[in-house]
Task: structure prediction
Amino acid sequence: MGLVARVPGSKSLTNRALLLAAAARGTSVLRAPLVSDDTLAVKEALRTLGVDVSAAPADTHWKVTGRPGDLADRAELWCADAGTAARFLPPFALAAGKGGRYTFDGSAQLRARPMRPLAEALTRLGARVLTGPGGALPLTVSGDGLHGGRLELDSGQSSQYLSGLLMAGPLMRSALTVDIPRLVSRPYVDMTLALMRAFGARVDEPTAERIEVVPGDYTATDLAIEPDASTASYFLAAAAVTGTTVTVPGLGRASLQGDVGFARVLGMAGADVTLGEDTVTVTGTGRLRGGFEVDMGEISDTFMTLAAIAPLADAPVTITGIGHARLKESDRIGVTAANLRACGIDVDEGPDHVTVRPGSPARARIACHRDHRIAMSFAVLALGSSTPLDLDDPACVSKTFPGFHTEMQRLFPTYPMKEQ
Result:
């Protein structure tokens, strides 16, 4: 089996499960949740709303006792850097509460991310909404519930607006029908729907561009959280560039997370990949193959992992379909390209693509822009090239994996990343 990576729970699953458990009647148990900046932001916001969330020793599981219809009627909620908190919590607070006024705010980084599509959708569903400049945070919503109905939601910037509204759907007064003319990151919406059904919701998909949610109660459940597939990408890529074998248990063909598909991308790059029912194993073959183009729009959180190791390939690599990644924690296309150029690598970028050409990375200071995925991606380049790279913000990995550097050092004693 080679090396076994200890990858923490999925951020996407943990935050969705927290919200659904808070909306359910009874006490749910979330096993092996992710403990990170983003999940703690959602956890603390739910507590502020009056939801009981308790942690077992060492956070082996969290118990969440839902309070649908009995939330605090006023609250100021801090979302930190978490886009899921800012986009999931407003529909939940309005639909699950007894009526009230809620203000959501976050860091400067989060204030720079778009919120207008969600604000407009909530207005059409009967809420009163105030936004900050440009339709961004701070966001204040008020009302005595959401009335449901039919709306069109452009999800071409982010799927999180859609997920937030869908999860609130069963708590609305009438059925919610959402028409989706544009959608990025469909696997994340599929994850949302699967979890909603696990908590007892009735959801129909009459067409690929329409989702219908029937009103009704959520039911408390016992849920095991899968390891985070996006985080797993760094360890699988490390195997590909070091000629070692790395296995991530708990992920595989049965995973709810689309980012498991990153393993297949490594297969395109010449690695040996085995995708079992609940394990994924990657073995580096001593050669990273380039000369291909791949659309990573559905798994865009992992495009930086590929882009960062692409200089080590034997031919250029082009990644397409990732325009929406410019609106994440950072402009991920621009930041990735700039950091690769700082390492002396030849890169072309466009509105929704990046091409990386082979080269020997030079030592450079990596500008993380407080983006955890930039830091972790360039950590893999440092390992694969044996080039010390200096992160300007190594601690930003705490957004999703506070122990990332420690785990890399455990698996790969030659890990050269400098934490300054």
